[in-house]
Amino acid sequence: LGAAGTEELLRFKREAEIMGQLSHPHVGTIHAADLVGKSPYLVQDLFSGGTLRDRTLSGDVSLAEAVKLTQQLADGLAHCHARGVIHRDLKPENVLFDEHGQAKLVDFGLALALEESQRLTVSGTVMGTPGYMAPEQALGKETDPRTDVYGLGGLLYFMLCGRAPFVGANVLAVLAQVIDSAPVPPSKSDPNVPSWLDAVCLKALAKAP
Fold first, then answer.
1. Is 89 a catalytic residue?
2. What is the mean pLDDT of the chain?
3. Are 1 and 8 in contact (CB under 8 A)?
4. pLDDT of residue 123
5. Can you point out the beta strands (E) in the chain?
6. Sign of the dihedral defined by the CA atoms of residues 170, 172, 174, 177, in that order
7. Dist CA 142 CA 177 (whole Å)
8. 23-57 CB burial, b ≥16 within 10 A, e <16
9. What does the pLDDT look like over 116-140, one tens digit per residue?
């Protein structure tokens, strides 16, 4: 981690604490940590299969595979939520694959325990990745497990369309779309996407949590 600032170190410690509570086939595992030395570190599994972004943009994700991977990630998120943890930063770079092609949810640096009374950011601060960020995040409002439902819909959208639900020239343009614009149905990008999968994806990406 190097010479981390106070908030960065707090987030790093929070990630270690949160990941230590989780044990699921589709969530990354932490094996050891040193959070007090000059160079704090975490020891996690090595996943050699690349990221969801790599896999999708190389054309290796079919419709059936997209559904299967979404189910795997949904199972992993359900495990997190059952333990009071919301991820808050679901994006293609935070999904890795092991040597067997199994999806693994990683990077809990922005994760939040639901019962926390002291947050690491003040109210109104936007935290997350704009293209996959839920409207309540973009508005700096309180988040809950439904925020991850939106993020999961964003991952499904990426697998179906090869891009985030919203793209723009800059961060502000993307955030404006996240708050006010409806996403283009995935079937407009790929006519092979069935209507039921369109509906699932768009329901997850609804503006209201």
1. yes
2. 87
3. yes
4. 44
5. 30-34, 41-44, 85-86, 95-97, 103-105, 112-113
6. negative
7. 19
8. ebebbbebeebeeeeeebebebeebebebbeebbe
9. 533 444 444 555 688 999 999 999 8
- The amino acid occupying position 72 is Q
CA 188, distance to chain mean position in Å, is 24
- Cβ neighbours of residue 115 under 8 Å, at least 6 residues apart? 84
Segment (H or E) for 148: helix 145-161
Catalytic residue among 34, 89, 107, 144: 89
Q: What is the pTM of this model?
A: 0.87
Tokens of 148: 């991850």
What is the mean pLDDT of the segment spanning 46-61? Answer: 92
Q: How many residues does the chain have?
A: 209
Token pair recorded at residue 117: 């009374």
Reported as a single tens digit per residue, the pLDDT across 70-114 is 999 999 999 999 998 999 999 999 999 999 999 999 987 777 665
| Model pLDDT, residue 183 | 95
